[in-house]
């Protein structure tokens, strides 16, 4: 079970469990559009929820970055516009690797592959 803490707006500090039928990307993109952040607690999530919400979290972070004039970077390629986000997502999926957020700050979002051991 996913738990989301809202970091802004009227719900600042509140923690909620989203309904099972909620589309994660729609919720998180709406939060970006409203100008506030979030924290996701994955500790009670099953594998499917982790994949679904983790992917949505990554794309919402990329959306927030480019919407605010920053860049989303993967494998050295910078994606600078909302229109380029599909190419960003495709590059991650097509890489065939698990990925992690290396940095999400004032410069932008940097996503790295997780090297197999």
Q: How many DSSP helices?
A: 3
Spans of at least 5 consecutive residues whose pLDDT stays below 50 are none
Write down the secondary-structure element order.
EEHEHEEHEE
The end-to-end distance, rounded to whole angstroms, is 29 Å
The biggest beta sheet, please? Answer: 4 strands, mixed
What radius of gyration results from the CA coordinates?
14 Å
> Which class of secondary structure composition applies to the elements?
alpha+beta
Q: Spatial order of the strands in the main sheet?
A: 5-4-7-6
Mean of pLDDT: 95
Overall body shape = globular
Number of distinct beta strands? 7
Classify the beta-strand content into a percent band.
25-35%
Helix percentage range: 25-40%
What does it look like?
It is built from three helices and seven strands. It is of the alpha+beta class.
Quick synopsis:
37% of the residues lie in helices and 27% in strands. It is built from three helices and seven strands.
Task: Annotate the secondary structure layout.
Elements: E1 3-7, E2 15-16, H1 24-34, E3 37-41, H2 47-67, E4 71-74, E5 77-79, H3 85-95, E6 99-105, E7 108-113
Parallel strand pairs: 4-7
Antiparallel strand pairs: 1-2, 1-3, 4-5, 6-7
Helix pairs in contact: 1-2
Feature tags:
4-stranded mixed beta sheet, 117 residues, 7 strands, alpha+beta, globular, 3-stranded antiparallel beta sheet
């Amino acid at each position: 079970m996913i738990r989301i803490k809202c970091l802004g707006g009227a719900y600042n500090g509140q923690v909620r469990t989203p309904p099972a039928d909620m589309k994660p990307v729609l919720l998180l993109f709406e939060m970006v559009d409203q100008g506030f952040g979030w924290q996701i607690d994955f500790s009670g999530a099953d594998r499917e929820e982790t994949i679904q919400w983790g992917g949505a979290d990554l794309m919402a972070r990329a959306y927030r970055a480019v919407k605010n004039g920053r860049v989303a970077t993967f494998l050295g390629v910078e994606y600078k516009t909302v229109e380029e986000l599909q190419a960003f997502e495709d590059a991650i999926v097509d890489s065939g690797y698990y990925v992690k957020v290396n940095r999400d700050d004032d410069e932008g979002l940097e996503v790295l592959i997780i090297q197999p051991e």
